[in-house]
Structures are given as C-alpha cells and as structure tokens.
C-alpha cells in the first residue's frame, strides 16, 4: 500500500521533470564533395599512405553547436543548430575522403597506422563557425604535415570564407559544408604535391 501511495504522489511530478534541452528539428552533418568511387580497391603495397588525425579544437568548437563570433571577444551560438557529431571529427572525415580521392593515397586512421603511418597530417581546427560582422561561414585549419618518417614538420594555414544570407541553421550549415570542402581540397593538393 505504501509503494502505491508513493507512486501516486510522484505521478504529478513526472510531467515537470526534464532531462536536457528540447532537441532541434534536425541535426546537421558535413558531406564530402569528393570521394573514392565505390568498389575501387586501395592497397598500401602500390600507393603511398597518409594518416589523418582528428584536429584539436579550441573550447568553443568542442561542442555540437555552431559558434557565431560577433566581435573579438564575444561568442554566441546559432539558434536551433546542432551537429550530429563534433565538427572536428566530421572535418577529419571530409579531409580523408578528399585526400584519398584527389591524391590516390591510402588514407589511414590512427588505429590503422600502428605499423607504418606513412605521412602524418594533424593540426588545429581554429575556426569553424560564423563571422557575424562579415556574414560569412569561416573554416580555418592550421595543418601540420610530416611527409616521411623522420622528415621535417611542415605547417600551413588554410582558410575559406563563404557568404551566408542569414545566420540560421540551414544556410549556415550549407555554407560551412562548402567551406570545409574547399579547405579539404586545398589541404589535399598540399599533401599530394
């Protein structure tokens, strides 16, 4: 009887409890514009390899939200916009697809590269959001590349800005996808030379 009374007493509270924010209508994702064709075999026996690591990010990008920089010190986030996965992981996947498609290299993940990683690409995804003052999606990647085992470290900054009509989830996501793909093409051409 006591259990029944406790359960009945807790029933009105059940509608008041919430575990987090209301989810957005749709989650956003990046997609590669360049990919290795389905069915094409790749082998490290006949091609050079490159290991692409997930880039490090500043704290404002260590979230599934899209930052909006309104000035040098203020950061907000695009309302109702949320990535399906952290942007650094998605960006690394776009770079992997693009490098493999444009260079013919076999792209390895960190786990696959234990024995012979080949060239190693890492870096910092410094900007992956919106510059409100310029109404542009901005992707800035500071790349670090070691072409051969024991070789010198090369660094280069890549940045692409794509205009956005409105700072809303859909147009910002499209512009960021375009900018990420353009940066990935630039990185692939740099890695492939």
TrEMBL record:
Gene3D superfamilies: ABC-type transport auxiliary lipoprotein component (3.40.50.10610)
SUPFAM superfamilies: XCC0632-like
InterPro entries per the UniProt record, alphabetical: ABC_trans_aux (IPR005586)
Cross-referenced Pfam families: ABC_trans_aux
The ABC-type transport auxiliary lipoprotein component domain, residue ranges: 33-188
Superkingdom of origin: Bacteria
Name of the protein: ABC transporter
Species whose genome carries this gene: Sphingomonas olei
């Amino acid at each position: 009887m006591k259990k029944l009374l406790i359960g009945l007493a807790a029933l009105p509270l059940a509608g008041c409890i919430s575990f987090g924010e209301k989810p957005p209508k749709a989650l956003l994702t990046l997609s590669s514009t360049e990919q290795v064709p389905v069915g094409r075999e790749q082998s490290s026996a006949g091609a050079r390899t490159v290991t692409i690591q997930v880039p490090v990010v500043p704290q404002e990008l260590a979230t599934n939200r899209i930052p909006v920089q309104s000035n040098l010190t203020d950061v907000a986030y695009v309302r109702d916009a949320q990535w399906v996965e952290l942007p650094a992981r998605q960006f690394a996947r776009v770079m992997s697809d693009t490098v493999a498609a444009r260079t013919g290299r076999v792209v390895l993940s960190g786990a696959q590269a234990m024995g012979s990683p080949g060239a190693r690409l890492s870096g910092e995804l410094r900007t992956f959001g919106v510059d409100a003052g310029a109404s542009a999606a901005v992707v800035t990647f500071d790349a670090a590349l070691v072409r051969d085992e024991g070789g010198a470290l090369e660094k280069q900054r890549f940045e692409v800005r794509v205009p956005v009509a409105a700072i809303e989830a859909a147009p910002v996501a499209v512009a960021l996808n375009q900018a990420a793909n353009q940066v990935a093409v630039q990185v692939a051409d740099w890695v492939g030379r």
